[in-house]
Amino acid sequence: MSLDWIYYAISWILLTWHSAWDAIGVPDGAVIGTNFAWILSIVFLVVTVRVILFPVFVKQIKSQRAMQALQPKVKELQEKHKGDRETLQKEMMELYKKEKANPLMGCLPMFLQIPVFLGLFHVLRRLDPGKQDKTLYGWTVEQFESVSQAKLFTAPIAGKFGSTADELTRLNATNGSTVKIIAGVLVIVMIATTYLTSRQMILKTGWAEDPQQRMIQRLMLYGIPASLLISGAIFPIGVIIYWVTNNLFTLGQQQWVLRKFPPPVTAKKAVAPAASRNPVQPAKSGGLFGRGKAAPPAPVKATAPKVAGPKPGAKPVSNPKKSRPAKRQG
Q: At 86, which helix (H) or strand (E)?
């Protein structure tokens, strides 16, 4: 199956945004070693894709809410079929089908963005001034020459951390060390923001009881960021800009959705043991990553001091009022 339609679509979006920035006066040349018109085109490629995928993101949140509501039933099935993994998986699949919940829906937005990521990766790899066919995927020769010279702080957006000296020479990179520094910093930011997007969601919704769901959560939280440490060396700088921008967009979007549609409070969270309650300690509420302002401590009612009774064996104390002699009558 040919993926040319993806490459044409990515190129069209980039060129359309570049034309828009050119129309409003964003300079096409380098300013502070950066071609902002092309950098902004990549940033708004993310915005375009995320607006298109927003309905899918809403479905993802609904599916996660449904999966969270099913956790008590999942736990019952785990206790019922302990040691029988095959029957457990069959029963859980029937439960998900009955309740119309999809465990894989949480990864769907990411999977749908993979073609966009691969398309941009392919298009940026073609940005070699030595290429003979410069009009592929709808580019004009002038546009191809312009984007192939585009830079971020003097580092070509088609360059990467692992670029050879020959590749950097063809891209007119002024300093190979600068390319490695810019690419290295972006890779670190890419790994950090990828980790934070998964951590943000898990801290709000909690770890899943379902082993399959928990495995997916661990993969998202640790596996993908770890893989980027190696694969980031082959990503062009323009692709890393796309990834980082996408992560920042995800962080903001998730925070907005989690504030507007907070996760349901489960019975386990709602009912706390009596011994763990302390009316004097402030309770936390809301905020990014579960942080929020502390509620004021509840007022404590003053109680009357207790009067200790007489010790066993002690002599009774006479009442001074009763021990007074009676007044004589004259």
A: helix 85-99
At 205, give phi and psi (nearest 5°): -100, -15
Separation of alpha carbons 286 and 203, rounded Å: 12
Q: Specify the DSSP class assigned to residue 31.
A: B
Residue 121's contacts (CB-CB under 8 Å, 6 or more residues apart) are: 235, 236, 239
Alpha-carbon distance of 175 to 161, in angstroms, equals 12
Is 294 in a helix, a strand, or coil?
A: strand
**Residues paired with residue 177 on neighbouring β-strands, in sequence order:** none
Residue 126, token pair as written in the block: 């073609």
Nearest to 238 by CA among 146, 143, 140, 155: 155
The 10s digit of each residue's pLDDT in 106-161 is: 667 778 888 998 999 999 888 888 787 889 899 999 999 999 989 999 999 999 99
* pTM of this structure: 0.72
Backbone angles phi, psi at 155, to 5 degrees: -95, 125
- Three-state DSSP at 156 gives strand
Contact between 148 and 38 under an 8 Å Cβ cutoff? The reply is no
Please check whether residue 153 is in contact with residue 34, taking contact to mean a CB–CB distance below 8 angstroms: yes
Per-residue confidence band for 59, with pLDDT thresholds at 50, 70 and 90: confident
The answer to whether 120 and 239 have CB atoms below 8 angstroms apart is yes
**What tens digit of pLDDT does each residue of 192-229 get?**
999 998 898 787 767 876 677 788 888 888 998 999 98
Two structure tokens written together for 114: 């993979």
Contact 39, 157 (CB under 8 A): yes
CA 280 to chain centre: 34
